[in-house]
Amino acid sequence: MTTLPVADTTDPASDAVRPRKISRKATGADAVFVHAARAVGATVLVITGGVGLFLAWQAYPTWQSYGFGFLTETQWNPEADVLGIAAVLAGTVTVALVAMVIAFPLALSTALYISEYAPAAIRSTLVSLVDLMAAVPSIIWGLWGFFLIMPHAADLAFWLQRNLGWIPIFDVPSADADAAVWDASRYTASAFCAGIAVAMMVLPMSCAVMRQVFSQTPPGEKEAALALGATKWGMVRAVVLPFGRGGIIGGTMLGMGRALGETIAVLLIISPAFELKWSFLEIGTNTISALIAGRFGDATKTQMSALLAAGFVLFLLTLLINTLAAVIVNRSRSGAGTDA
């Protein structure tokens, strides 16, 4: 039997055979990037937290004066010292839901077409066109919705009431769907009209998130599905959509958060009304952001505190939705096993 020599641990030369310690500490340019990214992230958190603390501090007098009734009162009547956001909170959610019902199928189909069906030669052009929609100012979307979409939306709202009026959300109590001459003014300046404009504003964000997740689907899984005889749509349904489920949900929720805070476009389209309505087709609604924008200029100190209290509620609502969206996207399979 041959005996192998054992290294002398007392000899300094034996250090050469010891494992080298690997440091995880970034150095050079990597250290600069890590500290810069950390500083930017901390700055964002500080700014967001500062905004929340400011709104909470400014809203404290309102919570002290009106208490929980501020969330349950529908009327906004400063002259009578009656202030509440129940109606505008419901209007905010209604406009956002209408927007997402319209934007979701458009964003999903657009993302699927760009990532799976569009020819490679025009794919980048389509991406740029969709992203360009996000650069259109809110006031332009508001004018587009007011002058171009609203008359056609009124026709569609009337058709929905006539055919689906037995469902409460499609019924317009103030209008007669069977009248010989229907009153178009009862169907304009509604949450439905505002929701169409907001849908076009949130579509690029939702589409971008979905498209990015779809593009990271592992090519091996797609090719395997096609090799087993699946059609193109069968492959998309069995591989791409399950892989991008987190992106679909996350993109939709991010769009929802954006829709809740839209201001100028909604303010230009809606007819302000402080009442709870079952129907989103009927004229008159309001949102928290539109209320703040419309009443900010001539608000007294008490009214300003109430407006900031409403803003604080909207801040918490959007923060919650965006946080849930981020968690869902991070937990999705996005990028797992993608071939280089």
What does this structure look like?
It is flat and about 85 Å long. Helices cover 65% and strands 1% of the residues. It has a single domain, classed as Orthogonal Bundle (MetI-like fold), CATH 1.10.3720.10. It has 340 residues and is mostly helical. The protein starts with 28 loop residues before the first helix and ends in a 9-residue tail after the last helix.
Short description:
The chain contains twelve helices and two strands. The chain is mostly helical and 340 residues long.
CATH architecture descriptor name: Orthogonal Bundle
Overall strand count: 2
* Average pLDDT level: 85
Roughly what fraction of the amino acids lie in strands?
under 5%
User: What is the CATH domain class?
Assistant: Mainly Alpha
How many separate domains?
A: 1
Please write the string of helix (H) and strand (E) elements.
HHEEHHHHHHHHHH
CATH superfamily placement: MetI-like
Largest sheet: 2 strands, antiparallel
